[in-house]
Amino acid sequence: MKMKSRHRIENKHEGNHKDKAVIAGAADFHGERIQQEADIEAKNETANRPEGNYEYEQMIAENAVFNPKQMIEEAAFYIAEQRDFAPGNELIDWLQAENDVETTLGNAK
Predict the structure, then answer these.
(1) Are residues 50 and 58 in contact, defined by beta-carbon separation less than 8 angstroms?
(2) What is the largest CA-CA distance in the chain?
(3) In 1-109, which ranges are E strands?
(4) pLDDT tens readout for residues 72-102
(5) Cα 72 to Cα 100: distance, rounded to the nearest angstrom
(6) pTM of the predicted model as reported, rounded to 2 decimal places
């Protein structure tokens, strides 16, 4: 009779170890899923962040509707602002802005 009781107790303890292993495995799986979701969210956040040397490039990246003339005007403004609006380079600023906007729009396609 003692052997049966001892056998049942050993099986009962063995079952507890199996249950703990299953729970630990489930916890690990859940932790991995949470980490994967966090990684995906971080990648999406980075992918949607505009990049560029100029503020107008960031504006271009954020706008869904492109108005090239307005974009060139704003780009020329930012270029002139970078040189403290010194007179005499307005045409150069405009041509540079046209080139930058065309390049940016070409890369967006």
Answers:
(1) yes
(2) 107
(3) none
(4) 999 999 999 998 998 998 999 999 999 999 8
(5) 8
(6) 0.41
In the numeric block, which tokens belong to residue 23? 């729970």
Residue-wise burial string across 29-65, b where 16 or more C-beta atoms lie within 10 A, e elsewhere: eeeeeeeeeeeeeeeeeeeeeeeeebebbebbeeeee
> Average pLDDT for consecutive 10-residue bins of the chain (109 residues)?
51 62 74 82 66 62 72 92 91 94 78
Q: How many angstroms from the chain centroid is the CA of residue 15? A: 45
Q: Which amino acid is at 7?
A: H
Structure tokens at 15: 């079952």
pLDDT > 70 in the chain, percent? 60
- Cα 46 to Cα 29, 39, 50, 66, 100: the distances in Å are 26, 11, 8, 22, 23
Contacts of 104 (CB under 8 A, 6+ apart): 52, 57, 60, 61
In angstroms, the CA 45 to CA 33 distance is: 18
